Amino acid sequence: MNDSGTWVGYALTALSACCFGFMPVFARIAYASGCDTSTLLLIRFSLGGLFLAAISAAKHAALPPRPTWPVLFLLGFFGYTGTSFCYFTALKYASASLVSLLLYTYPALVTLFSLVFTGERPTLSTLASLVCALSGCVLVIGLDGQGEPKGVALALTAALVYSLYIIISSRIVGKKTAMASSASIILSSSVAYGLMSAITGTLQLPKTLSGVAAVIAIALLSTVIAFWSFFAGMGRIGATKASLVSTLEPLVTVLSALLFLGERLAFSTLAGGFLIIAALVVSGLEGVLKAKYGRLSEPRASENTR
Length: 306
Prior knowledge:
The protein is mainly alpha-helical. Helix content is 76%, strand content 0%.
C-alpha cells in the first residue's frame, strides 16, 4: 500500500467517525421538530439499508453464507434495534455528550465479557483500558448531573446490548462480507421499526424544515456515507487502525454538542470523557500492535456498526 493510499484510508475513516459523531446532534434537532424515536429510526434504517444494499450490489460485495442469514436477521431485528432504540431514546433524557460517552464504554464491556467467558488472562494494557473506561463512566454518571437517571440507564443499556451484539456478530460476520451483512442487519432493523409503528399506530414526522433535514442527514450522512467511508477506509488501512481512528467519534459528538446544541460540560464530565477516550485509544493501540506482530487477527468489521 503506497503512502497516498494509506492517507486516503485514514481520511475516509476519519470522515466516517465525524458522520457518526454528528448523529446525536441531528437526533436532538429532529426531536425538537416533533419527530419520535421509532419514526426517526424507521426512516434511517429503511433509507440507509436500501442505499447500502445498492452500494453492495454495485460493488459486487460478497454475500454472507446462507446459513448465517437467519442469525443476521435476528441480530438486526432484536440486537441492533434494541441498541438503537435505547441510544436514541436516551438522547431525550440526557445530553448528547453524556449519552455518547456512556455508549463508548462498550469496548470495556466486550473485553470484560470476553475475559469472563474465555478465561483469558488480561494483559496490562487490557487492565489499564478497563480501569480507564469504568472510572470515566463513574465520573460521568456520578458527578455530571446533566441527565435524568432514565437517560443514563438507557445509555448504559445501549452499551450493554451493543457489546453483546458485537460478541455474537464477530463470530458470524467476516471482513469480506461486512458491507452486505451490515446492509441486511440494518434492513432487518427497519422491519422491526415498521412493525413497531404499525402496532402502535404512530408515525410522528418532523414538522419543520430543519427537522426534515436532520432526519435525512441521519439516514444519508450518518448511515450511508458513514458506513461506506468506514469500509472504504478499512480496506486501505485495515480494521485495527480503522477502529483506532474511529475513536474520534465521541470527541466529535462532544464538540458538536457544545457548538450546535449549547451543551455545557462539567469538569467531571470532561475528566470522565478523557478517561473513556483514553481507554478506547489504549484498546485500539493494543489491537494494532498485536496485529503487527501476528498475535491477533484483524477484528471483525461488524464491530463498527452503529
